[in-house]
Amino acid sequence: MQKEKWLFEISPKTNLFDLNLKEVWQYRDLLFLFVKRDVVTVYKQTILGPLWYLIQPLFTSVIFTLVFNNIAGISTGEIPPFLFNLAGITIWNYFKDCLTATSDTFKKNAAIFGKVYFPRVIMPMSIVVSNLLKFGIQIFIFICFYLYYYLSGATITPNKLLIFLPILIVAMGMVGLGLGMIISSMVTKYRDVTFLVGFGVQLLMYLSAVMYPLDLMRDKLNNIKGYNLSWIVDYNPLAHLIEFGRYILLNDGNFSAFGLIYTAIFTITVFFLGLLIFNKTEKTFIDTV
Amino acid sequence: MENLSKSNEETESRNENRHETMDSRQLKTGNREPTTEVILKVENLSKQYRLGTVGTGTISHDFNRFLARIRGKEDPYLKIGETNDRASKGNSEYVWALKDINFEVKKGEVLGIIGKNGAGKSTLLKILSKVTGPTTGSIKSKGRIASLLEVGTGFHPEMTGKENIFLNGAILGMTKKEIAAKLDEIVAFSGCERYIDTPVKRYSSGMTVRLAFAVAAHLEPDILIIDEVLAVGDVEFQKKAIGKMKDISGKNGRTVLFVSHNMTAVANLCSKVIVLKDGAIKFIGITEDAVENYLKNQKDNNHLYQDKLIEDDEFKLINFDLINENGESNYNFYTNQEISFEFNFLLKKTLNGLRIGFDLIDNNNSEVVFRSFNDDLMEQECYMKGSYNLNASIPKNLLKPGNYLISVAIGIHNVRWISLGEINIPITIFNINGINKNYADKRPGVIMPLIKWGM
After folding, report:
1. CB B16: neighbour CB atoms within 10 A?
2. Residue B392 is assigned to a structural domain of this protein
């Protein structure tokens, strides 16, 4: 009897590294349409529409400036504190949005995932892409304030490394997506993780030097009641990413080669780990979600 | 204005439908020649589910599984598990929703899958459409599979009809190019042309379903899985949907897996049927035999309506039973078989003018017949104290297939009703081997008697 040729086979045991990226590519139109859906429907039935994207970072920056710079007296050098905070928050927001929106992918889309098959990874990927729009609006408002301060005589100069901004954004998105995919896989079975994400992200922001210079934070952590806690920022890839972002946007602070290499390795690792876990979970999550 | 145009359109498409079904006569007889090539092969497929909630027990089971895996042993929880009989209380936390399913589908075949609720139909379809994975076993396929598990998946209320066609089509696996090429066809089939640039949230629910089915019906996979989509929409649209599905399987030679509780639709569409029971294949074979096997399967209590029987100080209905031609109690009958009933009653005193009969009510809640034996036979008027047995049978080849209610009517003439409309027994009449079996429920008319034709 001749051996029959099958187009595909569904079986319980699949290779862990069977990511089926070819299939994802076949569904690229779906990715595009999901992005379009998110973009088109987000302002529906709101009065202020996209203005909401501006209000949140502006108010946050004002409060941070008030609390950290005016009350606590943290110095941001020659950079206007408001601009310093706005830069940090804009970059941080992209990561935060990617993480929180992707971390409940399975739970939120259980209804649609339970009925039709398509590569599940399309869904979180589309979230990361459509968040770029929000990021674009926020970076635009940053540029407006940048120009305002520049024209009113503040000593800020752009850095020639600004061309690396897209890479920074990709890295932020990858970390957010990677962590989000890991978390969403765990949420399918153990809802406990959801509670962690909400305040975990909030706390992580304080540990990632979003509203103060990295060097200042490291110095202060160096000796807390005799303990050296500077590893908190040294091994926090987000702190490095934020600092690098401020460096290229405001030409402020500095970054180490170690920090960059470490962050790059971390980013790639967490992204692929997330992809593997997500891929493994998608096959049976519908039974446990 | 809107209503007017809608009803116009409906009558129009009803007429269209009549022609369509006339045409599809050749289809039905002509197309059932599946090639011998096997397109889908299911081997030893099983699916285990854990009952109860996910709680603290879950983590220890996960841990045990993990330990077994790193020691290279088999999953300890795979050995246990019971058949999935939802009514009986079991001992195990694990059940087999599907157990050792094996079958093959040939190219161009329309395979029906029937079974009671919880028999494993949906689980099987979910595994086939890759929504969830099997526990053991495998499925091999030579073609692209797309499923119509529920129409309208992923519709976004804020987006227009056209935008939703693209989104829904992409979710179902079409590329943008494919959808664009078929856009006009889809819009025309849905009959929502006027609303196509309006957000779907402004649609009536019927229009949403039409649009969704239109997208799904224009998918072009090699194997199409359909689960109960026919349960939605109005009668007219259901007929349109069945017609479209016949086209898909007939003209286009597509392989279809069809799951339904609607035996008439199954008998109409399918060439081969699988009967599932408690997660296992109970029967597999040609449609007529399978449907009969499934329906026979359903009689589980001998005395149908004991709990609802009536009693007062003059009269007691001891038993009322519906019996098919094989002498079995049943709710399901065939157009080419008699429907018999048996009244078993006790008179506590001598009664004058007793009337016992039945009312047959069809799906539209209108009375098809109302008969009582005294009316028909003009027999004795006075009944002595004692117990009686009364039989009746509705002749074969008289009623149309469909759902009916048999309502027991008992009264004393000119005095009172003992029971009227209190005992209503739903029955279903199927047309599997009777006359006019292809179009029985599509032709107008309330009854379908056997007509003597001559030429």
Report:
1. 12
2. yes
Taking CB atoms and an 8 Å cutoff, what residues of chain B touch A10?
Answer: 127-128, 130, 133-134, 138-141
pLDDT surpasses 90 at A123: yes
H/E segment holding residue B84: none
8 A C-beta contact, residue A85 and residue A70: no
CATH number at residue B402: 2.70.50.60
What phi and psi, each to the nearest 5 degrees, are found at residue A166? -55, -40
Which chain A residues touch B167 with a CB distance below 8 Å?
A: 33-34, 37
The closest alpha carbon to B324, from B360, B298, B356, B350, belongs to: B298
Half-sphere exposure of A284 (CA within 13 A, CB side): 17
Q: What does the pLDDT read at residue A273?
A: 94
Q: Least CB-CB distance to B158: which of A30, A44, A283? A: A44
pLDDT of amino acid B425: 84
Helix, strand, or coil (residue B96): strand
- What is the domain count for chain B? 1
pLDDT category, B374, cuts 50, 70, 90?
A: confident
Going by pLDDT thresholds of 50, 70 and 90, the confidence category of residue A63 is very high
B152 domain residue, yes or no: no
Residues 6+ apart with CB under 8 A from B177: none
A62 three-state secondary structure: helix
Q: Which helix (H) or strand (E) holds B153?
A: none
Beta-carbon contacts of B151 under 8 Å, excluding residues fewer than 6 positions away, are: B209, B212, B213, B215, B216, B229, B232
Q: Are B171 and A116 in contact (CB under 8 A)?
A: yes
Question: Which residues lie closer than 8 Å to A56 by C-beta, 6 or more apart?
Answer: A93
B445: how many CB neighbours lie within 10 A of its CB? 8
Nearest Cβ partner for A118 among B144, B166, B171? B171
**Is A27 close to B176, i.e. CB distance below 8 A?**
no
**Largest alpha-carbon pair distance within chain B?**
85
State ipTM. Answer: 0.82
Structural domain boundaries, residue B387? 306-430
pLDDT digit string, tens, across residues B70-98: 777 666 666 666 666 655 666 667 788 88
Residues of chain B whose beta carbon is less than 8 angstroms from a beta carbon of chain A are: 38, 41, 49, 54, 58-59, 62, 126-144, 147, 149-150, 153-154, 156, 158-159, 163, 166-167, 170-173, 175-176
Contacts of A17 (CB under 8 A, 6+ apart): A276
Place B182 in a pLDDT band, splitting at 50, 70 and 90: very high
Between B6 and B362, the higher pLDDT residue: B362
Token readout for B132 is 């969830």
Structure tokens at A37: 């859906």
Any domain includes B50: no
Averaged confidence pLDDT in chain A: 86
The reply to whether residue A115 touches residue B175, judged by beta carbons under 8 angstroms, is no
Q: What is the pLDDT of residues A143-173, one digit of tens each?
A: 999 999 988 887 777 778 888 899 999 999 9
Distances in whole angstroms, Cα of residue A15 to Cα of each of A12, A25, A274, B75, B127: 10, 19, 16, 17, 18
Helices A81-102/A237-250 angle, 10° precision: 140
